[in-house]
Known about the structure:
The chain is an all-alpha fold. The chain has one domain. The protein is built from 7 helices and 2 strands. Strands 1-2 form a two-stranded antiparallel sheet. Helix 2 runs antiparallel to helix 7 and helix 4 packs antiparallel against helix 5. The protein is elongated. The chain starts with a helix and ends with a strand. The N terminus and C terminus are likely disordered.
Amino acid sequence: xxxxxxxxxxxxxxxxxxxxxxxxxxxxxxxxxxxxxxxxxxxxxxxxxxxxxxxxxxxxxxxxxxxxxxxxxxxxxxxxxxxxxxxxxxxxxxxxxxxxxxxxxxxxxxxxxxxxxxxxxxxxxxxxxxxxxxxxxxxxxxxxxxxxxxxxxxxxxxxxxxxxxxxxxxxxxxxxxxxxxxxxxxxxxxxxxxxxxxxxxxxxxxxxxxxxxxxxxxxxx
Length: 221
């Protein structure tokens, strides 16, 4: 695609200036939330074995900390999907679904001493949507940012799907690393939108910078 055409695509489908705020806030809310919330629990709490959901369960100490973090995290995913204009629509829709499901996870905490079907369903929906969205968000052509190239997007989904399988195996077998598996999966899913947004900004910056000719004159192509 000619250079001038790339600049036109960027102008129409570029990430807005506020687009980096929400994906940057997502991992801060998630990791900061589970760190602070875990510090407020009794000494018996084990972050390697115990889940993030346990920090927001009805019998958790100061459960509002993790609940607010999950609500904010879900909102960040939804707002990131709105800002990620260069991504394909199916990917943006799945990211939105992942954010909405995360909000519903917070709205349906685990009861004291037992599981919760609504909580489990929404948690599964969030994890799956956030793992799959990269694979259906890729674009085509020389103007596509690195984070939205097909090979990169599919690789990201394969990696997160592998982490999801690990988490499921820990959950179904009562593994000792259940909390660790969930934190690694959730952390990677929270960081990936930020990585994609940053590659979009880098691509926009390059497209908006005129290529210098022999005499230092910008070439528009």
